[in-house]
Amino acid sequence: MHIIHDIENFEAPWNSCAVTPGVFDGLHKGHQALIHKLLKKRVDARVLLTYHPHPDLVLGKRKSAETYELFTYEEKLALFQSYSLDAVVFLPFTPELARMTALRYLKEILLGKLKASHIVIGYDQCFGRGRKGDYAFLKKMSHRYNYSVERVKAVRGSGLVISSSQIRNSLGNGDMETARRLLGHDYFITGLVVRGFQRGREMGFPTANLEVPRSKVLPKQGVYTAIAEWGGQSYRAMVNIGTNPTFDGKQLTIEANLLDFNADLYGEQLRIYFRKRIRDELKFDSMEALVAQLHKDREVTLKEKL
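The structure corresponding to this sequence follows.
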């Protein structure tokens, strides 16, 4: 799979392609429907075009870079690689690109650089200044520039059109079951294991403390059952997202206790797939009371399937 960042200096090695453009911030079932439709096209190449950084950040629709990405660049890349795409274009989203007209975007990028002969677009997807590049625009221009266009219908879940906003709401409520249903897979985070306060080790529950990008959306604070992935192996894990109120903590931490595991993970990348939320993070009167609860959490976590 070709990974393309420099579109200006890119020369397509194919004569024609099918392309689907979009933000693909959640890569949920709606986005997956676009990809599956794209992959059915009999062309030289099937190309997905997305943006980095997120357009909302560049356009000022979000006040900060904190907690807006469902999946980071690296995570999206890993998800894209699970499909039989021939190329993924990460188009740098800049104020200049935002000002580009839909016609210029179509002619210079989709038809010019990527040599698109077929365009797959979502039911509400748009591109170009003023969001003029919608399905009606593409259909009208297709006769002039000799390409075909196809619109994919909205995908529904829980009676509503599946969207990244729905997924963010589910994560904010700690509702991992709904998030999984909308995504089609477990929501996950990827982080670097860093040194913590070592309290878990003292209690017999050593934890891997994860450092994740500030932009990453985290589930609601609390305790979760999860599956940790490292070194090509999967392990049941119980994960705490919170401030450790029993120890009067102030800093938000992500701590994963991998069951039946004792290797040193410092400096390693660890991926956590969330299964379900067990409980709120609680302030216990004593360490003994906390340890007793951790044993109960462990019993719940042991029931998760790898």
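The chain has two domains: 2-154, 187-301.
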